[in-house]
Write the structure tokens for this entry.
Amino acid sequence: MNVINKHATLVICIIAFLFIIIAGDIKLSKSAGAIDSEVIVLRAAQSKSSNHPVSQGIDKFAELVKEKSNGKIIVETYHDGLLGDDREVIESAQRGSIAFASSSTPNMTSFTNYFTAWDLPYIFENKEEVYTAIDGKPGDIIRKEMEKSGFKVVFFPDYGFRQIVNNEKPIEKPEDLKGMKIRTTNSKIEQADFEVFGASPTPVAWSEVFTALQQGTVEGEGNSYSLLWDTKHQEVLSYATEVNYNYSSDMVVMNKSMFDGMTEDQQSTIMAAGQEAMEWQRNRANEREAEAKQQFIDYGIEIYEPAPEEMKKWKQAVKPVWDEFVRPGMADPEYVEIILEELGKTREGIFGD
């Protein structure tokens, strides 16, 4: 009899546990819809370290959502890849396993080729051009395109321009890179950049770059000052060359079905918080990049800043990359022209033709 009671008790406990889980899912499902009376708890995940300006922008977004909704919408943020890398969190948001995800735009090219155009060297030559494109027609085209894949674009955090850093020698002109092994992302355009510079592009997973530099597997890489400093790469670097050869943006997206299931007021809260967080984050990103650059200098990293005439050589060196990638199926020629028109410049003007 005791054995029977024990089994019965166990079965009851299991059923109760399952009921709690199911009830929790139902509550989350309801709270992701048009419910004003309950507190909505939504998760946001991405892979960068919690002290990176992108992460700080997402935390600011969560703070603003709570404030603007009077505590009715809570966004829980997960950084440092706690819920997965860029690809994994984006796929989770697409499925609806989490509400929000953030990823660097090069990792979003599987959803639209438009991002390939953003990767072109020197299509953006300064932050003002970046913001003009994102806030204008080029950004609106991306926002609309992403909805086809089940995403609502909330805002674009500023990641920054990539600089060339290494531990071998000063780099002043493209030919100084000849024969050097430079770590790149999986971006075909970035790899092509370094090929025309004369280097040997070597794709390495981000988590392995520090060790690769330490062991000599690669001799340099391209990245923003802030990310390099925050991940202690200054410990295995000696030289930097400030050429802004590539700009990377991040983007925060929400599962579109969840967004569409919200009330108009809830939707307005999310989007208003995103806009305000983006403006705040842009300032923070630029402040942090300047701080990190000074930290590099103070640490003893030698930074070379090419003069305007020298920059022409860097730009002209990557002209073949445009010739190779600005075509249908890659960097869509029509979309590239839309970006250039929005910025009031021409391809010829970039390269000084």
Q: What stands out?
A: Residues 264-299 form the longest helix (36 residues). The domain at 161-248+289-351 is CATH 3.40.190.170 (D-Maltodextrin-Binding Protein; domain 2). Confidence is low (pLDDT under 50) at residues 8-36.
